[in-house]
Amino acid sequence: xxxxxxxxxxxxxxxxxxxxxxxxxxxxxxxxxxxxxxxxxxxxxxxxxxxxxxxxxxxxxxxxxxxxxxxxxxxxxxxxxxxxxxxxxxxxxxxxxxxxxxxxxxxxxxxxxxxxxxxxxxxxxxxxxxxxxxxxxxxxxxxxxxxxxxxxxxxxxxxxxxxxxxxxxxxxxxxxxxxxxxxxxxxxxxxxxxxxxxxxxxxxxxxxxxxxxxxxxxxxxxxxxxxxxxxxxxxxxxxxxxxxxxxxxxxxxxxxxxxxxxxxxxxxxxxxxxxxxxxxxxxxxxxxxxxxxxxxxxxxxxxxxxxxxxxxxxxxxxxxxxxxxxxxxxxxxxxxxxxxxxxxxxxxxxxxxxxxxxxxxxxxxxxxxxxxxxxxxxxxxxxxxxxxxxxxxxxxxxxxxxxxxxxxxxxxxxxxxxxxxxxxxxxxxxxxxxxxxxxxxxxxxxxxxxxxxxxxxxxxxxxxxxxxxxxxxxxxxxxxxxxxxxxxxxxxxxxxxxxxxxxxxxxxxxx
Length: 511
What we know:
Pfam families: AMP-binding, AMP-binding_C
Structural class: alpha/beta
Oligomer: single chain
Keywords: Ligase
Number of helices: 16
CATH architecture of the domain at 3-7 and 26-177: 3-Layer(aba) Sandwich
Distance between the termini: 48 Å
Protein name: Long-chain fatty acid--CoA ligase
GO molecular function, one term: ligase activity
Strand content: 25-35%
CATH class of the domain at 3-7 and 26-177: Alpha Beta
CATH superfamily of the domain at 3-7 and 26-177: ANL, N-terminal domain
Strand order of the largest sheet: 2-1-10-9-11-12-13-14-15
CATH topology of the domain at 3-7 and 26-177: Rossmann fold
């Protein structure tokens, strides 16, 4: 399926049904489809051919999101560009992806102006709102359309996505229509959905350039509505769940912690929620248990990566509980079971597949896995060594088939000759009532090789002494895994999608 086919599928279930909602304004499927058609026609009028790369640089916005379907109907390739990136990183991505067209919001005109001179391949610049003199206005762009356009995708390539870029120069992940169709099928078969004729309502607070965006496709295929939040606001998020009768939403753990701490949570009507996805980073088991109690039995984990979007393993709301209805505490630290259309194994560094309980790199086989890295055959070959996709995560499968992620391979700390997985220490630290978030790293040390170091972000009004934290961790997981150094910072450095940047922490601590 092309990306626009999800929109068309939703429209086939009722063109006058609600499709997009933002700031009190609504768009039906027919309205969104009509605008997507005009965008496709305008792209063709500007010379965009099947397989050409079209980038969108915008915050969450319903018109910008509609451009995705116009790009798809024109047979072009969608390249989401994160507006939170630095200008140089976005310049490198646009050049790497061979983009010929860039659609952007006026709020990012300064960024675009800064880099456009270095991007000669981009022949069309389109501004969605107040256009600068060097870009086409939105109305002028739409007037470029000359005929109705509905083209097939070239070689099934649907989108190119930049990797996070936290460890070196980003790469371009090529995702095909088949990859995203597999992801959509896994989403629909693995989690609860309203029974027809009821339709889902999905609330998108997280960036549509990332996980929150691709989760829209199964919603559209079900004829559901997407409520778009332009800016993150936890209070408004809770209000929209109640007022829009939201059934599905997604947040990374850091934002879920803010939801749990928000004073409006106890009085918010959450009865419409069926599936509250969490993922993109490890979540504290204790805070997950709190969410299951205070938000409700609707929490649903997903584990994936850009190269295998979203659904390597899944944990539906019911999987968080035992048959008698009690919380299955032993599962809360897992990433669920491998998804039905995905084969997951654990591999040693020499390419040997390991038995249940043994720790090694998590490797994957599935039509979910990317085609490869754009114009980077060396990195593609490295990621697919031994015939498996290598995730870079260390983990194990337990006897019940649940996948446990113990660390990123690069984040394991070797201290005093022992392998210490940072996520295990972080889980222990998150159990302390004063700790809001944390990161554990290894710093060079003459005695220990690497000195296990914890950096804490505390809850408002809290204070804690380093020796108290060390005693707390030692009691739970032993002295070897107890940080030798404890720092307290006001805020932890984070990526554009909220992940803690351990490389930046190391730099700031002078490693």
